[in-house]
Structures are given as C-alpha cells and as structure tokens.
Amino acid sequence: MPDISVIIPVHNGEKYLRECLDSVISQTLKDIEIIIIDDGSTDESLWICEEYAKRDSRIKLIRQNNKGAGEARNNGLRNASGEFAAFLDCDDYYPSVDILETLYKKALEHNVKVCGGSFAELYGNEIKTEFTGSLSGYTFDNEGLVDYKDYQFDFGYHRFIYNLNFLKDNSLYFPDYMRFQDPPFFVKYMIAAESFYAVPMITYLLRIGHKKLLWTNQQQNGLLDAIKDNLETAKKNKLADLYVLTLQRLNEHSYVFNPAVNKCSIKTYLKLAKLLHSVDKTYIKIFNKDFKINKHLYPVRVIINHIFSLKRVDNYKVLIIWGIRIKFKRS
User: Fold this and answer.
1) What is the pLDDT of residues 167-179, one digit of tens each?
2) Are 70 and 76 contacting, i.e. CB atoms less than 8 angstroms apart?
3) What separation in angstroms does the CA of 83 have from each of 7, 62, 161, 166, 319?
C-alpha cells in the first residue's frame, strides 16, 4: 500500500502541467502513487501525461470524457490504494519537496484522519502568504491538534491529506456540482473527522489570475447547490461561524448572477431567490455585523426583486415578474 495517493484531475492544462507533475515526482516521500485523470482534454495535456507515465512507474493514467473536476477526483479516489489521499490541480504545484513527507509523518505520529498546512497564492510572479477576513483560515500560526468546531473554515482543501479508508467508509466523495464542489467535501470530511492536525508550513500553492472563469448556467446552479449544501450542514451541526461564512461566500460570488456579467436563466434566478428566502434569520444580525450584507448581496437582491417580488402599496398588492408589474386590489 502506498503512503499517499496524489490525485490530479487534468483538463486542458498543458501550460503548467509539467511544473505540477515535477513538484510531485520530486517529493522526498517516495512511496506514493500518482493518479492522473484526464478529463477529456483537447490540448497537449494527455500527451504530456503519457510522457510522464512512461518515465515514472508510480503514475497511473486514467482517461474519461469531460465530466468536471469533481467527478475526476472521485474517479481517482475509486482507483486509489494509498493510506492517505492528496489532491492537486494541474495548474498548481507543491512549493517544497518535503510537503507530503511532513504531512504523512505528522498524521501517523498524532493518529489523525486528516492533516494539513497553510496556503499560498501565486499571482504572476508574486506569492501571497497572508490572508485576512473571510480567508484568514487559509493559514496556521501554530502547530497542533485542532477541533473543527473551533475552526469552521471551508476553503483550501488541497493543503490537507485525508485518510482514504475513512473517506471511503463514510462515503465522503465530492458532490456532483459543476462548480464549488470542494467546500462541501471539505466541510463534511472535517465534521466526520472532528479534529485535524495543523502545521504552519505552506503545503500548497494555488495559481490565480491566469485564466478567465466562465459561469455557465450549469455552473451557476452548481454554486447555488453547494452554498445550500453547506448552509444545511452548518445548521444541522450547529456551526454558526460556518453558516455565516457560507453566506459571505454567496456575497462574494454575487457577480455571478449579475445579468451584465453572466447570462442567467429565469430558473436560476428563482432558485437564488428561494435560497435567499430560506436563510435562517437567526444568523442575519451576525452576518450584517461581521460582513456588511448590503455591500455585496445588495446587487443580488435588486436582481431578485426585478425577477420576482410581491409588495404591498397602499390598498394594493404589486406582483413583479421579470420587470412586469401586476397590481391587485387587497381584499
């Protein structure tokens, strides 16, 4: 059994793929398997993967039709045989050679189901290692065991390794969302594990700003499904900080539903309206205090009111559907 299975979904990542794979095969922890899932690439990615697979017997290459990164990772998990699983995207890389060895040894030493470190972002030639506000959970100042109820963060799952048997026994796979599927996976695994071991070292480098994200209707709905998923999970497990943080994620992504930026279907707008109306009002005051809801979510509310709203005006009810006002006399 390999110590760690490194799972790498690949879709048209030829530009940075070699740097990604080099950072894995050069790790000081040698007893690893590297599972590459080519998710229907149409560029030179598959050829590069085949080249590396010929050079390194630890690489297992799997091909599938384009189904998205979540399904590609699940495919990798189903074919993994390591004691732990790690996840790496094909345009990112490990910033040092001892990351997997450090995480693996710490996980065994402290007998935990999940172990991880700090996060860094690469924008052009600049590396960012300090984060505040809704991203402050990206880094750890101290090493030690952490209860997830004291952490309640949702981003940066790549910087951890996960016990594979525990994952499979608890069916902790990535949900079938076309975007934003990693926060629900991360949150549910952490809740099941209850605690994790943290190290301050940077264990993952995420490349940002190098590609334009296009939000299709399917991806917009995936985001809404993921937000709803985490809200329900947070409420069920009485994780108030996570609930409020998830509302902030919706705030931060409100531009996705702005018709000036992306096309949205009426169904998607109604789904967004339903999600907003389902928000537990218990947390709204905390949310307003911590994140100033109107700053980000106001544009979304304007859109929703334009799509569908019911107001009382004097002795009338005014129903607005897609900008059309229908006036009813109140009984």
Assistant:
1) 999 999 999 998 8
2) no
3) 13, 20, 10, 10, 58
Residue with tokens 């998205």: 68
Are 252 and 125 part of one and the same domain?
A: no
Q: Check: CB of residue 329 under 8 Å from CB of residue 315.
A: yes
**275 found inside a domain:** yes
Q: Do β-strands 316-321 and 324-329 pair in parallel, antiparallel, or remain unpaired? A: antiparallel
User: Cα separation of 180 and 226, whole Å?
Assistant: 6
Asked whether residue 154 falls in the same domain as residue 23, the answer is: yes
Angle at 48 between CA 79 and CA 10, to 5 degrees: 50
Specify burial of residue 132 (Cβ count, 10 A radius: 0-12, 13-18, 19+): exposed
Residue 174: CB atoms within 10 A of its CB come to 20
Instruction: Read off the pLDDT of residues 225-245 as tens digits, 9 standing for 90 and up.
Output: 999 999 999 999 999 999 989
Domain extent for 163: 4-208
Read off φ and ψ for residue 260, nearest 5 degrees. -75, -15
Burial 206-226 (b: 16+ CB within 10 A, else e): bbeeeeeeebeeebbbbbbbb
Count the neighbouring beta carbons within 10 Å of the beta carbon of residue 61: 16
Show the tokens assigned to 68: 């998205």
Distance, CA of 318 to CA of 312 (rounded, Å)? 6
pTM of the model: 0.87
CA 181 to CA 229: how far, in whole Å?
A: 10
